[in-house]
Fold this sequence. Notes:
Layout (H helix, E strand, L loop, with lengths): L1 H21 L3 H19 L4 H4 L19 E3 L5 E3 L1
Antiparallel strand pairs: 1-2
Helix pairs in contact: 1-2
Amino acid sequence: MRTIVRILSVVALGIAGTWLYFDRSFEPALTTVVSLSALVTTFFLGSSKSDEKQSQNLGDGSTGIQAGGNVNISLGEKENKEL
């Protein structure tokens, strides 16, 4: 996903740079700066490495539930507790 965003950012930067070359005004300059900042941001922001790996430590006699999203646990009757 990040690769697609980078490719699109490079294409947008190329188009904005060409537009700025032929028409030196505020709008193409702003578009070029925004496209460049979008490209630079793809290298600094994104999924962190700690989110990709899950780990869990459990004590004796305990049961662990590990999921990538919300988990519903039935507490008996019709009540569900969302964790």
